Protein 1
Amino acid sequence: MIKILGIESSCDDTSAAVLCDRTLLSNVIANQKVHEKYGGVIPELASRVHQQNIIPVVDMALKEANITKNDLDAIAYTRGPGLLGSLLVGVSFAKGLAASLDLPLIEVNHLQGHVLSHFLEEQGVEKIFPSLPFLCLLVSGGHTQIIVVKDYLDFEVIGETIDDAAGEAFDKCAKVMGLPYPGGPVIDSLAKEGNPEAFSFAKPKVADYNYSFSGLKTSFLYFLQKKIAENPAFVEENKADLCASIQKTIIDILMIQLIKAAAKTGIKDVAIAGGVSANSGLADRLRHDGQIYGWNVFVPERKFTTDNAAMIAITGFFKFRKSLFSPLDVTPFARSEKGVRPNFDSSDFSG
Ligand code: KG4
Ligand code: ZN
């Protein structure tokens, strides 16, 4: 049995998890409330709070797993993409701990972690896993991609956003309505009371399986400015309908390309992952469309949708099995450009 400690610090959540093979023993997440009053994540503050949180969070993860650091077989950490100052805290901590315990280090791509969270097992929980190859719509605060998952460590990105991510679209639209950050979950809950057909917004036409969300954000802003000029209480009086309508538009945009990708590839196992996969409207639509198109659909449990170290540990487990270890001089990477970082190429991820 392999015991892996996972460490995640790419944005504003400090998280540590312990995995025994594929079974989760603990998954501790410390959220940073400090950013709420700024309406977005402040990188410098995030990095400092990670420094305060990392030791207690790892300590708690080991305690909850009922093991000590001497029982560990490897340490997996998020190398990127993310905020450099935040990543540095997790990367440095992981290196220090691995060096002191003489354990192998495993670098993990945060996005790959989101996707592989579908393979986490929990004691006493019956679960059906996607069969390979499967299609995954990865929707987070920084990324929107359609990925063909050929094997655990062999991903092909067949479509992605050319500008904003789906999570950014949620957060920016929430911000112009004066809703708190992060706006995605707030829109999700207000949308439940609203009419998704109340307002309609233009959907972009983007080639292949790619996405664009920046136009939607701008047209939503202009639409609101016009309405507020006529009636200053417009947002307050129509909040639920606005949330339901903007959420439906974002989901429509996401599903159009996903349906095209599923038809083209012929893949019937279709999953969603990443922070936006916590959206109840998106999950409902995936299930609904899945019935129409004969898909087996996979929606992660809510606790595995947003950033967590369990997903880093499970990716670490698949890399451990192939002895894909990283040296001590590895540095974090902030962005996902080719050549700057390990991409989702099979050459980078398979053994
Ligand atoms: O994956 P994640 O935790 O962090 C990144 O890797 O970016 O995703 C965060 C994003 C934020 O944009 C947040 O608003 C969005 O996920 N999000 C949601 C929901 N919960 C989180 N968006 C829509 N509905 C939700 N329920
Ligand atoms: Zn994430």
Note: The chain has two domains: 3-126+304-349, 134-302.
Protein 2
Amino acid sequence: MNFKIGVIPGDGIGPEITAEAVKVLDAVAAGFGHTFEYEEILLGGASIDVHGVPLTDEAVETARGCDAVLMGSIGGDAATSPWYKLEPSKRPEAGLLKIRKELGLFANLRPAYLYNELKDACPIKESVIGPDGFDMIIVRELTGGLYFGDRITEEVNGVMTAVDTLSYNEKEIRRIAVRAFDIAMKRRKKVTSVDKANVLDSSRLWRKIVEEVAEDYPEVTLEHMLVDNCAMQLVHNPAQFDVVVTENMFGDILSDEASMVTGSIGMLSSASLNETKFGLYEPSHGSAPDIAGKGIANPIATILSAAMMLRYSLDLDREADAVEAAVERFLAEGNRTVDIAAGEKWLGTSAAGDMIAGMIS
Ligand code: NAD
């Protein structure tokens, strides 16, 4: 089959790691008889340098014309990069918010998976985690809630006061809940919905709508969990989670916590999806300006993001399995990049990408 894939190399290590993911996609295309056509898209600092803005309208249109978009990461060192002397709406991150909004990317998927071979990197004792590790996916609502509500900063009776608004409507809640249940159907069929329903009206509506959606998925077990308890459970018993669905800010915080529990940020992928099959796929980590250009970045998170793209946007499940199996084999055979190496022997970015691409079968 033929697919058009947008590629956003971005900033910092972004171009290095996307090149390796494309290498792996090329191996998939050759091995499974597909044609992937790539369209390069500028976003972030790379776009500011050329166009003076972090994302042009033309770039959005190019992305819209693709079946899916694979991204490296964007941004620079805030202390030294000239991009951060610009006003906030012109900085690299504004480009990311714009593309998410323009393309309606409301569902952010962040898997947190403990690789058997990397158990030593996990900060939690094996006796707590259990022999089988953990494998969860956090489904975060990405375009509503506190980050998009009305804001006011004003002086009230001589006292400076700031207000942020947390608002959700039932349509926004229903579509993210449906995504979570659909994903659970492809996994271990359990959804944990996280809210603060003992305090917030928006959470009480969230809980009601999630329960309505659950009625359409009788095979899936639904549980509700308060966000403060969830923060504890993630380090107390992460193996209990399969699919966790939650609103924007809770998801932002919990997905970072879950990724740190794996102990290997260079390994974690993510996807942001809209109401169609379209998605933007990127590693969970940032642009790592401290190691940019050194050829030592771990490309696995981006390669696994490409696997998610194959599964969720292109419906190529077998091919996604092949990429994930290649990464497992790479690790099982003792190969490591510098961030996950315990000893002195490790592979650079390109050598790691070559090896994983060579293991696609
Ligand atoms: P970071 O994730 O870029 O780096 C944190 C640490 O992890 C650094 O020591 C880095 O060297 C290391 N690291 C990250 N990815 C790695 C990889 N693949 N291989 C090996 N080591 C890796 O986080 P930060 O330093 O807080 O942010 C740097 C820049 O990235 C900032 O401009 C930030 O805004 C941006 N950022 C972008 C995104 C995105 O593009 N979606 C996400 C997060 C941060």
Note: Residues 103 and 274 are 7 Å apart (CA to CA).
Protein 3
Amino acid sequence: MERFVDLIHKKKRDSELSDDEIKQMVEGYCNGSIPDYQMSAMLMAICFTGLNDRELTTLTLAMRDSGSVSDLSPVKGIKVDKHSTGGVGDKTTLIIGPVAAACGIPVAKMSGRGLGFTGGTIDKLESIPGFRTDLSAAEFFQAVQSVGICVNGQTDDLAPADKRIYALRDVTATVDSIPLIAASIMSKKLAAGSDKILLDVTTGNGAFIKDYGQSLALAEKMVAIGTNAGKQTVAQLTSMDEPLGFAIGNNLEVKEAIDALHGNGPDDLRIVCDTLAAHMISLGKEIPLEQAEAEAKSAIESGRAWEVFLSMVEQQGGDVSYMEHPEKLPAAPVTVDYRAKEDGYITSMDSEGFGVTAGLLGAGRSRKDDAVDFSAGIVLRHKINDFVKRGDVLATLHTSKEELADAAAERLDGCYGFSDTETEPVRLIGDVVR
Ligand code: URA
């Protein structure tokens, strides 16, 4: 093997790395023969000079192959995975998973926990009493086969190279590189073993990538990787310029998802879910998008998606009575109304700030092993372009300690913008990349 320092030089000068060099880099970093300081320099070089599509695909596949790749072939049908690049109030998997399964698409999904300002599907599901997300491979297959859907936690051997590289990126200011993000996400999606992949690429002030053009570039890179790896991949851009729906926080979001599965709930959540579900169904059934959207709506209206959701909860050990009576879910002992300090139209909402504030209230974790308060979070009363008067309740804070609510209310002061006139409506649904 060439000395790794020579490869760092090469990348620094914007020369291409060969497939062998990239594979040796991933292997060498995982087996400890390449130290952190050299890998950090390489990651920084990639941040500045990038990777072409061949290099990017090779890197992603090497990361995928650093652990085990799920074989979902025992599950009949076209398996479609769905992944969101993260957002605030994003409970879409809880809704569109059952919708797609009710339309006959097997959903064998591995999801993650929340970290930082975005929530994670696994935390939301674990806020349902009894719900298990640590099913064995055999239990996972059995669940998908019997109810059509299972949402399980990510196993430790899913793309372990990504775990090591991500931890290094986190402390070397190399997270915000489009090719590194694309390789990180796609290595896990490809290892999860579905036949096709739908990516919900969020964009805006509550997304991982805030700039629309950069989000589009990320979507294009991920679709190129998926396609090069032989998996049909579609990316839908969706806005995170305000939190999705009204609820932010684990069991608060479960309650909102239950409403949505009954055909109720906030319009923005319904529109995003209909769009994403239509893509999943279109990919899985190989039918036009409009027909798929009609099927998604009918799965909700007929109650079939709700039935599938209940079966999923039961199959994964959750207590279904809480889903039938969501008012039974534990409520936060402290609720405090946060009120408008002026009259006017709400013209901006800093979604990331809402995510951080929900975290302050106990809904999130800042370190991997922190405990999460399932009942903590924020329920919004108003969103962009609503007119409010001074003293109107803008949001209700849910927490276990009064003092946390005080700190959170202070943080929210900076999260709203007001004006005498309305602003452009949020463009919820952006471009599609195929
Ligand atoms: N999510 C990931 O899984 N990886 C990244 O690099 C960024 C967001």
Note: The first strand starts at residue 80 and ends at 84.
